[in-house]
Amino acid sequence: MNLADSGILSAAMDDAGFVSVSNPEEAGVIIINTCSVREKAEERALGRLTELARIKKTGDSRICAVGCMAQRMGEKILERIPKIDFILGTERLFDLPRLLNKESIEPVVDTRMTKNLDWAEFSPAPDNSYSAHVTISRGCDNYCAYCIVPYLRGPERHREPGAIIDDINDLYGRGIVEITLVGQNVNSYNSAHLKFPGLLKKVVAETDINRIRFITSHPKDLSDDLIDLFSSEPKLMGHFHLPLQSGSDRILEMMFRKYDYTRYLSLIHQLRQARPNIAITTDLIVGFPTETEDEFGMTLEAVRDIRFDAAFMFRYSVRDGTWAAKNLKNDVPEEVKLRRLQELIELQKEISYQVNQKEIGRISSVLIDGTSRRDASVWKGKTEGNKTILLKSPEDLLGKVVNSRINRADSWTLHGELAA
Ligand code: SAH
Ligand code: SF4
User: Fold this and answer.
1) CA–CA dist 320, 243 (Å, integer)
2) What pLDDT does residue 396 have?
3) Ligand 1 centre from 43 Cα, in Å?
4) What residues have CB less than 8 Å from 383, skipping those under 6 apart?
5) How far, in Å, CA of 201 to CA of 197, rounded?
6) Whole-angstrom distance, CA of residue 410 vs CA of residue 357
7) pLDDT given at position 322
8) How far away, in angstroms, is 32 Cα from ligand 2 center?
9) What does the alpha-carbon distance between residue 202 and residue 206 come to, in Å, rounded to a whole number?
């Protein structure tokens, strides 16, 4: 979501006549879009802002902190880093180009929230020349016990299908071949009598985009209609991100996730039936308050049973204002959380390795989006399952969609060659 917001802001800055430069020392305006989902993300943003404030030029250069942390901390950021000029919350960040054109000496802090989405109707800038994120909804109504997102991004609001289609057609016209639809919970999309599967069908029917992805899905709202689309619609890429969070029913209930492990498992079976070899990824939290060693063991067991292609794994972090922060003691010691996290990461790494070995011999349609960081003569791309693949070819493949046979794999990367 932050990547998508940064894209929109970047497009709005371009429109207002600003030009991007390649290093902060040259910049007249420096913008950091921040995340508050875990304490570590905030620490990193504050560290980066402090660093940038140090190189701030005198005169008219400006430093801007925008997004979730700006929303949550507001003026408190100024107490830590007085040189900041703009602090704009999740619903005010797109005002930045307009505000920058005004003379102002005092720092501007604006964290007002609105009820409508008019402020968000800007077209996004692509992530690169070939793929782009398109926001379909903002905010969240789920209030999972640990999560700060609903407090900082407000209630769930859905964009009109027509606006989404216009964005995609516009991006396609600019050469974009892959889009990712973004919302905190795309499965609860409902606008102009269209639910999420209906929206996907509309994208297929009314645009020429051939590679469609989406994030994120909440298991409680994942419908049979959406799963069925994976068997009938080849333009949907074979990847599904479905956050599980914990393998223990007691912990899931305490998190207010509104599904149990059995229900989650049946969704996984349905997805694998609808699209064999679909890549499934997830989010997991260890050390939620009161989590016992046995309950952590259930998360390990779930990971062993389901065999995710990959997982984002986190240790629980207290977020002020959430239900868990107000009502539960953060009683799993940090060293226990760290040890559990390490164990989980090791297990998932081994499983990712094994799952990726099964990809060997398969052919995947790949969007080439750059070159390997280590070796510029090797092309880098994304498979249908959203995995990074490296392949060699003397041809210029940048921005092209090619078939690749996978012939080697490690935990995080596949290696392949061009195939017919
Ligand atoms: N809307 C998305 C997730 C947004 S946050 C969804 O529901 O899937 C991304 C992930 O961060 C969550 O899935 C969760 O695993 C993790 N997360 C959120 N709050 C957290 C916290 N307080 N501590 C640790 N991890 C957290
Ligand atoms: Fe947070 Fe839950 Fe909403 Fe995801 S669904 S953003 S985890 S409250």
Assistant:
1) 22
2) 94
3) 17
4) 279, 364, 365, 366, 389, 404, 406, 414
5) 6
6) 8
7) 98
8) 23
9) 6
Taking the chain (420 residues) in consecutive chunks of 10 residues, what is each chunk's mean pLDDT?
90 91 90 95 94 77 95 95 94 91 84 74 75 93 97 93 95 94 96 96 98 97 97 98 98 98 98 97 98 98 98 97 98 98 98 98 96 94 98 94 97 94
How far apart are the CA of 284 and the centre of ligand 1, in A?
8
Give the pLDDT confidence score for residue 355 in this predicted structure: 98
Task: Decide: residue 49, CB within 10 A, 0-12 exposed, 13-18 middle, 19+ buried.
Answer: buried
The token duo for 374 is 């280590």
- Distance of CA 37 from the midpoint of ligand 1 (Å): 7
SS3 156: coil
- Ligand 2, atom 2: closest residue by C-alpha: 144
Radius of gyration of the chain (CA): 22
Q: Is the CB of 140 under 6 A from ligand 2?
A: yes
Residue 59 has what pLDDT?
60
Location of structure tokens 């349905």: 270
Answer whether 185 contacts ligand 2 (Cβ < 6 A).
Answer: yes
Q: Is the pTM of this model over 0.70?
A: yes
Residue 319 C-alpha from the chain's centroid = 19
Atom of ligand 2 nearest to the CA of 140: 3
Nearest CA to ligand 1 atom 18: 147
Amino acid 124: pLDDT: 72
Which residue's C-alpha comes closest to atom 12 of ligand 1? 283
